[in-house]
Specification:
266 residues; globular; mainly alpha
């Protein structure tokens, strides 16, 4: 999935603009995205305002990430090229995610839930694949690394909630949770939490709180209480994992600092 910096500078903001336009359509059309949500409830339906509350700050981080992607010039120095490479590696996954979310919005607002779910599957699996197989540990001394971690992990984190929500309403509309659903939810979140940094892990806790509040709102009080316990347990697993094995690095991963080039000294 390699991509040049010049191409990334076009693809990333274009995909963001397409997704942003689709979101405006989703909010302003009739029925809007919340109307469709309210008409299709299931055992993994979250409180919808939690999703809106997540995306607003997440988009601010996206804008900061996009600005840095555009501003950097990898030809200036070896250090800046490393910063560029960190960001461009994520761009194909980022673009796929934005285009899938935009496509999902069109089908969701048309109440074509099974078709919409296809795009959710593609996006969520794409983002999870990136953070678990390609994303290197966060370098706390690299702005590009920090921003890429925030954007990619939050994309994947909300992708987990999207996967549950859309799958449940597409195939189990107006159904309550059975024992299998309760066990799968607990085991699944615990497994993800066991290999999560604080960012992705925090998103998992947020997902569970959104589900707990949403389920309480539709009368599933017992299930809501259990989801709340899952949120507490997930937070504990994430904290223990990160304290035992800190996931971040500071400086060069290999333990040495690259000699400065002539351009670096200027």
């Amino acid at each position: 999935m390699g991509i040049t910096h010049s191409t990334a500078r076009i693809v990333a903001p274009l995909s963001f603009a397409i997704d942003f336009a689709a979101q405006q359509y989703g909010m302003l059309s009739t029925p809007n995205m919340k109307d469709v949500h309210d008409a299709n409830l299931s055992f993994w339906s979250p409180q919808p305002y939690f999703i809106a509350g997540f995306f607003f700050p997440q988009q601010l981080f996206q804008l900061a990430w996009l600005y840095r992607l555009w501003k950097l010039d990898g030809s200036k120095s070896a250090k800046e090229k490393k910063e560029v490479d960190i960001m461009t590696d994520f761009v194909p996954y980022y673009a796929v995610g934005n285009l899938c979310i935009a496509s999902w919005m069109i089908f969701w607002n048309s109440s074509a839930l099974k078709t919409a779910n296809i795009f959710v599957l593609i996006n969520s699996l794409t983002q999870l694949t990136y953070i678990f197989t390609r994303l290197p540990p966060m370098n706390t001394r690299s702005t590009s690394s920090v921003l890429t971690h925030i954007v990619s992990n939050t994309f994947a984190g909300i992708g987990v909630l999207d996967l549950l929500h859309n799958g449940s309403v597409a195939y189990f509309d107006h159904q309550g949770p059975n024992l299998a659903v309760k066990v799968l939810t607990g085991v699944g979140f615990a497994a993800l939490a066991g290999d999560s940094d604080f960012i992705f892990g925090g998103c998992l806790v947020y997902d569970l709180v959104a589900l707990a509040v949403g389920q309480r709102g539709i009368g599933e009080t017992g299930w809501s209480n259990l989801l709340g316990l899952y949120a507490v347990g997930t937070a504990g697993i994430v904290a223990a994992r990160n304290l035992a094995r800190p996931p971040y690095v500071s400086g060069d991963k290999d333990g040495y600092i690259e000699a400065a080039t002539e351009d670096d000294r200027l």
